Amino acid sequence: MKTITESNENYSIIDLTLEYENWTGTERYAVISDFDQEYLEQNYSSELSAFKPYLFMTSEFLDVRRNFRNNNKKFEMRELLYHAVYDYQDGITEGANLSLVADDFVDKLIESEELKRALTVLSQTEKERLLEYHIIGKTLSQIGEEQGCSAAAVKYSVDRAIKKFNKFYNLT
Q: In angstroms, how far is the first alpha carbon of the chain from the final one?
């Protein structure tokens, strides 16, 4: 939002009530300049009288203000991008982090009696690797790294589990 009310090459004026939404000061405007206040009063008193009482600030304030706004925008964007990773928000976090909810999903899925019987044909390792790969969405390398084996070994287990499922459901 642009809050500079008036500007020329020697000074700028900002409306403090627009700049700071909870502003409670008696001054509504701020005059910002590289020149000192006395010089401005001598040369621009008629123009500045419409903005009295005002705060006087050096032009370095504009740089501080610009940096502050840029940082705020940067942090707002970071929050939008990463809030679900570092903060729990019901309904949002689960979408970004399937590993946080996979167990709940798997528990509901396993409530099916037929699926329970199908899972009995798998070894514990095959079940774990199949769930981590297809439900949680981990890569073969990630699973192998966590379990201390190669990605090829994980792929073999996952493929073998799928073959057993196909056989159980008479799909082969």
A: 65
CA dihedral 50, 53, 56, 59 (to 10 degrees): -40
Strand ranges of the sheet holding 29-33, from the earlier edge strand across to the other edge? 4-7, 12-15, 29-33, 54-58
Distance CA 141, CA 150 (A): 7
Residue 144 has pLDDT above 80, yes or no: yes
Say what angle helices 151-168 and 140-147 make with each other, to 10 degrees: 110
Q: Is beta strand 29-33 parallel, antiparallel or unpaired with respect to 54-58? A: parallel
Q: How many CB atoms lie within 10 A of CB 94?
A: 17
Per the prediction, the chain carries an average pLDDT of 79
> In sequence order, which ranges of 87-139 are alpha helices (DSSP H)?
93-96, 98-110, 113-119, 124-130
| Number of neighbouring beta carbons within 10 Å of residue 99 | 12
Amino acid at 100: L
The model's pLDDT over 79-108, given as tens digits with 9 standing for 90+, comes to: 666 654 455 555 555 555 555 555 555 566
Collapsing DSSP to helix, strand or coil, 138 comes out as coil
Under a CB-based contact definition with an 8 Å cutoff, are residues 128 and 160 in contact?
Answer: no
